[in-house]
Amino acid sequence: MPEFVLRLQRELRRLLKRLDPVFTEVDRRFMRGARFAYKHWKLLFVWGLSACFFVGGLTLLWAATLQLPDLSALESRKIEQSVKIYDRTSQVLLYDLHDKMQRTVVPLANISPNLQQAVIAIEDPEFYTHKGIKPTAILRAIFTNLTQGDLLSGQGGSTITQQVIKLTVLTTDKTITRKLKEWVLALKIERALTKDQILEIYLNQVPFGGQLYGVEEASMTFFGKHASDLSVPEAAYMAAVLPAPTRLSPYGTHLDQLTARKNLVLDKMFEHGYITADERDQYKAATVAFLPQRDTAIQAPHFVFYVRQYLEDKYGSDALTESGWRVTTTLDADLQAHAEEIVNRNALANVAKFNASNMALVAVDPQTGGILTMVGSRNYFDTDIPGAYNVATMAPGRQPGSAFKPFVYAQAFAEGYTPSTILFDMRTQFSTNCGATDITNDTPPCYSPVNYDGKFRGPMTLRDALAQSINIPAVKLLYLVGINDALKLAKSLGINTLTNPAQYGLTLVLGGGEVTPLDMTSAYAVFADDGIQYDPTPILKIEDAQGNLIEDNTERGGNQVLDPSVAEKINDVLSDSVARAPLGENDLFTFPGRDVAVKTGTTNDFRDAWTVGYTPNLAVGIWAGNNDNTPMQKKVSGFIVGPAWSEFMRYALSKLPPASFTRAEYTPADKPVLNGNWQVPGADGLVHEILYWVSKGDPTGPQPTNPGADPQFERWDAPVRAVYGNYGVQQQPAYQNPGQAPYQAPQQPQYQNPYGGSVIPTVPGQ
Prior knowledge:
Blueprint: H1 3-39, H2 41-64, E1 84-86, E2 93-96, E3 102-103, H3 113-123, H4 135-147, H5 160-168, H6 176-192, H7 195-205, E4 212-213, H8 215-223, H9 232-241, H10 255-271, H11 277-285, H12 301-315, H13 318-322, E5 326-329, H14 333-354, E6 358-364, E7 371-375, H15 405-415, E8 422-425, E9 458-461, H16 462-467, H17 471-481, H18 483-493, H19 517-528, E10 532-533, E11 539-543, E12 549-552, E13 559-560, H20 564-574, H21 577-580, H22 586-589, E14 597-602, E15 608-615, E16 618-625, H23 637-640, H24 642-653, H25 713-724, H26 727-731
C-alpha cells in the first residue's frame, strides 16, 4: 500500500478520536431533549401555538399598516398611449411621439382568441378558476428560490392577476413588502374586476421588448397585422416572447430559444385543450414570417415635427403624451421619399457648381390644401448646414425674387389690365429723389433696376414680360396697381409674412419681402384651382384611441379669393411655352401632354433661387441657397433649382391623371394700349408709355387730362418718346381724345438714348 495512503488513514483515525467526545455529547443532549419533549409535549404544543398566534398577529398588524393603492378606478384609469403619425394611406408609420413607450390599447374583443389562449396556457392555466393568487405556486416558488439562494428572484409563481398589479399599480422593486402588497392587491382586484377585464388590462400593458407595450403594438410590429387577426402559430410566438422580451426577441440572436419556447406554448395549448394533437404538430411545423425590424428612426422629420407643433399648438402638450391618438396626415410617403432623394442629391451637387449648400421642397394639393411633401433641407440630420432647420416653414432671409411677380400681375388683371397690355422695357430711373435722366444710377436712394441679362427689350406685352421674368415692366406694373393692393391680394392667397406695407417699395415685385416656401407654394396653388384658396394643412384626420374623430379635414371647403378669370389669365401666361421660349428653359419646364405653369425667381443679390409651378392637381415649390444667407454664384434660378424641380414634377405627374387649365375668352379693353396696340400716337403725334393713357389704379377709367401730374409719368415717358415716338406718325393717324389738348412735355435736359445715338432696338413684330 502506498505510503501517502497509510499516512492519510492515520490522520483520519486521530481526527475521529478527537471528535468522539463531541459526538457523544451531542447524542446525550439529543436523547435528553427527546425524553423532555415526550414527557412535556402538551406544554410545548401550547407554547408553540401561542408563538404562532403572536407572530401571525404581528404579521397581520404589519400588513394592516401597509399603504395600498386604491383600486376602485383601475378599470377606467387613463393609460398613457403613443400618438402615432401616419402618412395619408394610414399604413406608413412616420413617427411615434411617445418618448418612452409605443402602445395602442384595444378591447379584449379585438384580441384574437388564439392569442388569449396561448398566453393563458403558458402564463396562468388556472386563470379563470383561481382567486388571484395560487398558494401552491407561491410555496413552490419560495422553495425553489430558497434552494437557489435568492428569495426574491428566480422562480416567479405570479398569476396574470399578480402581473397586472405589477404592471399597473406597483413598482418592480424586489422586496418582501412589495410582494406582500402584490398578493393582497391581487385578491382585491379579483373582487373589483371580472376575469376578462383583468386579462384585457394585462394584454394591453405587457412589455414585448424595447419600446413595445401591449399585444396590438407588438402584433403590428412583428407581423404587420392587428392583434385580432393573429393565427395560432403567430399567437404562440407572441406568448413565447413574454418571459424575456429582450432575449427572446424575434430580432435578437436567440431565435432557437424563441422557437423552443413557441413549441412549449403549443404543447401547453394542447395540454389544456385549446388545440388538438394534430393541430399542435401542424402549427409547430408552420413557417411564420416576421416583418423586418422596423426602423425606429423618424421618417419625413421636418414634416413630422411640423405636425407635432400643430398638435401641441391646437390641443396642448398633454395630447402628445397621453392621448393615444392616431394621426393620419396628408403626406404622400412615396412622393416624400423621392423628394428627399432629389433634394439631397441636387443640393450636394450645387455646393461645387453654384456655392449653394441647401435646398427645400414643398408640394401641395391645390384642391384641398393638403401638404403632400415637405423637405426642409437636404438632410435633417446633416449638422453642417444645419439640416434640422426647416427652410420650408421659416421665413427670415428667404426672399422670393421674381417668383413674387405673379401676385402683382394677378392684381393688375383684376383691375382691368390684360395679358396683351403693353409696357416698355427700358432703363428707367424710378426714384423721385434722383433725376429722371439719371437712368443708370442705381445707388440708393436712386432706383434704376436692370434685367437678369442686362438687356432691354422695348415694348412688351404683359404676357411676354411675365413669362420671361423681365424686371422693368414688373416694377412699372407694381406702381400702377399700388403696393397696398398687391400685398392685400398676396395675403388673400396665403402669403402671411408681408405684414407691413410701409417697409416695402417698388423692389417688392422683384422679391424685396420675406416669405416661406410653404406659403409661396400654397399661394400658387390658388391659381391652380381657379382662385379658390385653402389654408395648407398637414392633417387628414385625427382619431382617439376608441376610433372617435377628433379632427376631420377629408372634406374641406375653400374660399374664392380671386376671380376665376384672373386665375385663368395667370395660368395661361405661366403655361405658355412660346412666350417663355426666350428664357431657354423649355427643356426643363415643358411636359408633353400636360398643362404645367411655372415661374422662376432669383434675388438680385443671388442669395435665393426659386422655382414654383403647378398643374390643376399639384403645386410644387423649391428653394435653393445657403442657410447663413451667403450669396450663390451669379446664375439664374433655372440652372440652380430648375433641374430638381423638373425631376420631381415629372415623377409626381406620372402618378396623377392629366388635367388642363380653363382658358376662357376675355373681352378686349376699350383702350388700345390695354389690348397690345402700343403704336397708337397721342394728341401730339408721338408714341407714349401707358401713363399717358391710363390713370394709376383705374386703367379702364377716363384717360388722364394731365398725365404729367403723375410723378412717374415723365420718368417713364421720356425714354419712350426719345426712342419710339415717331412710330406713331409713321403708322396711323393720331388717336383723338375728345376735349383734351395735346400733351406738352415739360422743358428738361435732353434724354440720353441708352442704346447709343440713333440706334433703335428691334421692336417685336416689326
